[in-house]
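B., you asked whether I could sanity-check this one before it goes into the benchmark set. Here's the sequence:
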Amino acid sequence: MSYGALLDSAPENLAIVDALAKCQMQVRRHQKIMCSVSGGSDSDVMMDLIIRCGGKDRTTFVFFNTGLEYEATKRQIQHLNEKYGVEIQVIPPIKPIPMCVREYGVPFWSKQVSDMIERLQNHGFQWEDEPLDVLLQKYPKCKSALRWWCNDWGRERGRISNFDIAYVRYLKEFLIAHPPTFRISNKCCQYAKKSPAKKYVDEHYCDLNCTGVRQAEGGSRATRYKNCYTAGMDGPSQYRPLFWFSDADKAEYDKHYGITHSDCYEVWGMKRTGCAGCPFGRRYEEELALAEKYEPKFHKAMLKVFGPSYEYRRQFEAFREEMRQRECGQE
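And here's what the prediction gave me:
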């Protein structure tokens, strides 16, 4: 489709027009494009955008199967295959999520929190409230995690850093009062998605890697970037076609171009999906309830894999609320 025809068919929305123009430019500049399709609503829009901008024949669409996926997501992947006349390549994980959890531990609260706790656990940390210099003598090979534990990253700036444990209010107090009795880790993210994606890009010599990150979604994944494009140095360039889309922009795109999403959205009523059942999600309780209603077998699998993390998070949330109430009572 010509540039003029592309824009003539677009809605009167500057964010959408801008995204179409930029996407067509990136498509024309690159020959071997990879687009990660998750079955989520953002990736549905991204796939339509790339194909609408002429990228169908030079783009490989891939779905990274984590080993723990909703049937609704699998149906959506098949729907996209049929709708656009493509074959989304299903890439297996290096290690599926259930295996990662068994080998390394369950994710808890966030990727960074899980990573720091795992490092401390690997060094036999006893959840001690001691100064950094004292702890470094006891655990000399665990400096980064100990700095997190002691809120040392923001000390020079005179304020709490997002690399400090105090960034998650009352977490340190909770861990001291209720040390984890099970292993915690964020390794499932690495082996189920990140490493398979890098391996695929390296093996297929892609020159552009497209992901559905939006600034409006927030979280560490979105705040890591300042714009929609990162030029590649030793690897492919990174492109985020929907980076500047607000929720309203995305909704207008859906309506204008007739985009339909998986049953997780259209039937269950979910607002956002990530890795199925992931304890990092703020709405994990809502997701558990919906999975129990619509995919009860999968709900049982979620409890089996992530059960200890769900319970520990509930315990932490109750602890935080109690601490808040105490604090308010003292004011």
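One thing to flag: The two ends are 64 Å apart (CA to CA). Otherwise nothing jumped out at me.
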